[in-house]
Amino acid sequence: MVTKQEQLYEGKAKKINGTNDPGLYWVEYKDDATAFNNLKKGTIAGKGYYNNQISALLFSYLKEQSIPNHFVKLLGDREMLVQALEIIPLEVIVRNIAAGSLSKRLGIPEGTTLKKTVLEFCYKSDELGDPMINEDHIAALELATPQEIALIKEQAYQISEKLSARYLEANLILVDFKLEFGRYQGQVLLGDEISPDTCRLWDKDTRKKLDKDRFRQDLGQVEEAYAEVLARLRGGN
Ligand code: TMP
Ligand code: ASP
């Protein structure tokens, strides 16, 4: 039996504990929410539960679709068991529709469908505010090897296709999302979470926002949006 051991890390949205198996981490999803590099702080009631359940469901789906990832099993409402990845300090952002920082930076109106799926890398660093970087920066800083980056890019595009299709079944448009990858026994694996904290999701018919932008932009009904995403993915809409 796997048992929970000492806490290794506490992030903005999750706590990571070790277990009696060195290859496994015990992850607990929190209700705490931050935005704009910690400038805005709050809690979203039930978020830990919804994000844990949504992530488990989507990681399981991706495994069925032959996309390997760190998910092992659910441990409870807010907890899951994952493989103990050494996280590569990159945020891999995938965009199919313009929104957020892309709209702001390039002046593309929110909601414009992009002619090509856009992939961006940001350097995970709270002190620097997660700056966008390119493949030369990644090589210069030795954050990942060119082989690892090639694999991450290939997987990110595949994940985009598979996740977009899965969300569409729930009448949701996957606008953009963020992924993190890590190393496990010489392999690069998808890690972290896949939830309304890390994706922009709009209702297909009304384009109502059903993700963390409701918290970032003070739109209200934040908990309800997370609950709705889970219900729809479970087929309850
Ligand atoms: P952005 O438009 O603010 O750059 O965000 C792009 C996507 O990445 C969006 O789905 C939200 C997600 N994201 C995170 O998961 N964590 C972050 O720290 C940021 C800035 C964005
Ligand atoms: N989670 C990030 C932060 O705390 C940013 C965001 O998701 O908007 O800054």
What's a quick, concise take on this entry?
This protein is an alpha+beta fold. It has helices spanning 47-64, 100-106, 135-140, 146-169, 213-216, 222-233, and strands spanning 4-10, 14-19, 24-29, 32-35, 40-43, 71-74, 79-83, 86-87, 90-97, 113-123, 132-133, 172-179, 181-184, 187-190, 199-203. A hairpin with a 2-residue loop joins strand 13 and strand 14 (187-190).
How is this structure best described in words?
- The structure is a single chain.
- The protein is an alpha+beta fold.
- The chain folds into two domains: 4-83, Phosphorylase Kinase, domain 1 (2-Layer Sandwich); 87-221, D-amino Acid Aminotransferase, Chain A, domain 1, CATH 3.30.470.20.
- Helix content is 30%, strand content 34%.
- It contains six helices and 15 strands.
- The chain has helices at 47-64, 100-106, 135-140, 146-169, 213-216, 222-233, and strands at residues 4-10, 14-19, 24-29, 32-35, 40-43, 71-74, 79-83, 86-87, 90-97, 113-123, 132-133, 172-179, 181-184, 187-190, 199-203.
- The strands form four sheets. A five-stranded antiparallel β-sheet has the order 1-2-3-7-6. Strands 11-10-9-12-15 form a five-stranded antiparallel β-sheet. The chain has a three-stranded antiparallel β-sheet with strand order 8-13-14, covered by helices on one side.
- A hairpin with a 4-residue loop joins β4 and β5 (40-43).
- The longest helix has 24 residues, at 146-169.
- The mean pLDDT is 97.
- Thymidine-5'-phosphate (TMP) binds next to α2, β12 and β15.
